[in-house]
Amino acid sequence: MIVGGAAFDRNIDEFWRCIAYTIFQGYGLTETAPLITLADPAQTGAGSIGKVLDGQKIRLVDSEIYVRGNNVSPGYYENPQLTEEAFSKGWFKTGDLAEIGEDGNLYFKGRKDTVVVRADGINIYPEDIESVLKANSLVKDCVVLGLGYGSNLEIHAVLMLEDKYSGSPENIIKEANRKLNVYQHINSCSIWDGDDFPRTSTEKIKRNEVAKAVSSGRTKKKARGPKPYRKSQEILEVIKNFHKIKSKSIRKEARLEKDLGLDSLDLVQLAGAIEEKYDIEVDDSQIFAGTTVGDLETLIKSSRKASQKIPFYSLPFRAPVRFIRVIFQYILYPFMSVIYRLKVEGRENLKNLKGPVVFAANHTSHLDTFVVLYSLPLKLRKRVATLMSIEHHFNHFFYQSGPWWRRAVEAMGFYLLVNLFINVFPLSRTHGFKQIMENIGRMLSRGWSMLIYPEGGVTTDGGIKEFEPGVGVIASDMEASVVPVRIKGLFNILRNGILPWKHMPRWPLVTVSFGKLERFKDKDYRKIAGIIEKAVRSL
């Protein structure tokens, strides 16, 4: 499949790859005649626009792609002013924003002229918000705009809804905000009054015309999302009581770290304090150094009430089940050698391990857990639990609709396969931080080691993503020793639950490397996570 003309949605890209289609995606402009980069499906992950072609050079200036080469036009015909604006010392300014991944491939972020810049300097890419809105089946299309400037900035969504929908668009906005980072939250929305948005000859939406229509009131049924920040006495009390800060320092635009002096430990504890006071589900990843007091207010108003409990299953830790699990693993693992060859490095670092440890690994495939467990000696393997996201795996199998018998069979099958035979330990990435830590503490106190993937998900490009601070909390507060683990060679196997035979090398060599045991006394969780990440990368 050949893709061009507009950025290819990452989820759609991943879907076609999983059903064994080869995706060739090119990037370029009319002024570059036309290709600048081309994605080689054998060397790029989903969402990448590839590497620069021979004979051209690119560089990123404030994330904007600059390009030069023999294929680049020298300028615009009889328009010296436009030519001067479009070039900088021989480099053509594309107006497109991107970032370069660890694999050296380019990843498209959006157009420079569509980026919304907040008062605190954070860039908001409308395309990221629009993709979340479009995932709702009631939204045919949408445009996200920044209205106002500085402290008065609002994120405004213009929606084109399905004809069958007659409800309030506020519900659509609330649902989208639950999936977005707090600094991306939509503040208001309106309904497009027309059959379609104005478009160019290549079917791209004319954003300027949509913005003019919104400003002139030519959209209808305006609805509000989270209101712009108004200083709340409650949030003042939470921050002031949590950390001795003078009330006058707590301003709308005050950042938690730079202006209020909260460190990484404070940020994690603040998330727990907000959960406890307001009885809501708070994703601690949405509270970071650059979060403002205004962002906290918006987060509190848009968060869901705490409802779902994080289960702690004791059955998989009992002796009869442990015996069944060991037998099952001995039966299963020989069949795994048909899919790949296994090479284990650093086994000497596993000798003389005492007490529970945390195996922190990069996440390349849904086969990672089997491969790591098979690489461990039996004395360690039989007392290891694997942390797994409730949102990504557990809830996928526990349906809320359909025949009761189907739900019962699928739930039981999943429980037997994953919870009993692999000993999965559930966690949530969106809520219940305090309860998760208590459950992990119970497991470690019983002498069980655990396998954790600090990236928070399977890689989409083959590289290693930034480790989340949760592993730092476990290593520091629970004084758990950490063994870094690096997995190589599994990226193209079972990334999305399907074996992509056309993309998979024949009988690939998979390497699992174990690093030296690490212990931490530092209380900077992000720093600890960074050290562990560096150790994994070095293997």
UniProtKB/TrEMBL annotation:
Domain Carrier: 226-304
CDD domains for the chain: LPLAT_AGPAT-like (cd07989)
Record InterPro entries: ACP-like_sf, AMP-bd_C_sf, AMP-dep_synth/lig_dom, ANL_N_sf, ATP-dep_AMP-bd_enzyme, Plipid/glycerol_acylTrfase, PP-bd_ACP, Ppantetheine_attach_site
Gene3D superfamilies: 3.30.300.30, ACP-like, N-terminal domain of ligase-like
Pfam families associated with the record: Acyltransferase, AMP-binding, PP-binding
UniProt keyword annotation of Chloroplast present: no
SMART domains: PlsC
GO molecular function, one term: acid-thiol ligase activity
Protein name: Carrier domain-containing protein
Sorted UniProt keywords: Phosphopantetheine, Phosphoprotein
